[in-house]
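Colleagues,

Please find the record for the two-part complex below.
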Amino acid sequence: MSLLSVEAVHTYYGDSHILEGVSLEVDSGEVVALVGRNGVGKTTTLRTIMQLTPPSKGRVRLRGEDITGTDTHDVADAGVGWIPENRRIFSQLTVEENVHVAVPEGRDVDAARERAYETFPDLREHRYRDGGTLSGGQQQMLAIARGLVGDNDLLLVDEPSEGLAPLIVSAVADALAATAAETTVLLVEQNLPLALDLADRFYVLDDGRIVDSGETSEVEESDERLRRYLSA
Amino acid sequence: MTSVVLALSPFADGIPLFLDALGAFFRPSTLFGVLVDGLAKAALYVMIASGLTLIFGLMGVLNFAHGSVTMVGAYLGGLVMVLLVSQETGDPTRLLAFLLGVVVVFTALAALGGLLEMGLIRPIYDRPPLSQILLTFGLTLILDEFARIVVSFYGLQPISEWQAALATKPAALGQRHDLVVASVSGLKLFEIACGILTVVVIWAFLTRTRYGLYVRAGSEDSEMAAALGVNVRRVFTVVFALGTGLAGVAGVLLAWDQSWGASVPLAVETLLPAFVVVIIGGLGTFRGTVAAGLLVGLIDATMTWWFQNAIAFTGLPEMTIFLVLVVVLVVRPQGLFGVEEVGGH
């Protein structure tokens, strides 16, 4: 049984039909990349899984259990973490508080923070600073740390390299690789080399439909198979 | 406080008399008296506005029924105190009656707030803000009319202060006390103490508890908070309950203050300054509300002194807080501590 099954989901924003029967599966321990041009529905796919934008048709299953239409916090409690586009750090909360929010109730907050700081030592140095004062790279580290301390079985990671300097992208890639060693990841990423480097499998999304999929070991970034769906 | 009534007209012999008033204003006793008066007003403004700012900050709901809840709190708290206090009751027992009134009012109105949020407001979160405004405005009309009917039934005058509740105040709070360089009202000192206590309790809740952390996170980005596992709906209910409970507690204190008193018009009288303070501070920020409460309270007290003692006209001081609002909106539209967007749901 797959950890995550997305079964023929259709999702709308108002009258706009964004996802038109998207299906994909993610198994435990995998890193799966979802690639595609801007505006084809990648972020909406992650939002649909989190039930932030619930589908009007189709099902989302986690460990075989139907989570379609449940509250987002219940999806999070079930072990799905979301590292969104633009990080969405709580700018007026300190680094410590940002991490604290992500720690499930009843868990040891200090131990969770220690885990985050061990993975991202830079955060320990800035732990009393407000999230809004961090650099883009530090915010991305913090966003990943929040996903880590949530004890999630599945992390939905949306465009982690967006807007970051190349040197920082490399650090973020290392952090994601470390994270992927511990948990299952569904990665949305426009940076194709990064996505192919991290992922075991890929899906290509185009105009709200899955148009291709396969093992990342079968393709290269220059493959026409990928290029035709990724170039603007 | 030394009272200097110059009764001057700004149009005749104004400048020499203005200079006299200026000299009187800068006497230590006058300054201290104005400071205490300003802090007491600030304490009341912060108490009235805190619930409003918590609710708006987290939920993006402008609760027009907030003033009506304060009014109901004044009547309910007043009722508890009137039932427990007689002419022979000593000051300690009167204070205990006040505390009991606070507990009863907070419990009852927090429960009412929680029910209102779950039953009426929750179904319309996804609708345009106008729906929430109309709904809470409708609640105002219902609560005000309900209060008018009840107090009239019991032979009370709805539009004037409830004297029996005012009379339950401890004697020490009705007297003036020599403090540092001036004689100040015991009630004003009590109001300042209540205001400080309110700020400390809310600050501790927001910064020292897990729920407070959820409130601050949810105020900034409720969708992200939910995605991190926070049950935002439950936090909404708790905050709405706390906000209405706080509004009611402010009403209990106002029932003792001759300048306010328990009356049906108290709903509007408290709603306006609450909105002014919340807007000046920055919609939805608690520290902004505290800062704005202090600013408005001190300016209000200062202008009240000038209008009462140097111009002998009492109508305009209330206008000054709206002038402060206009200036702040022109210079800094998001308020003193405001962020560009709140209530991210």
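Residues 4-230 of chain A form a domain with the Rossmann fold fold (CATH 3.40.50.300).

Comments are welcome before we finalize the supplementary table.
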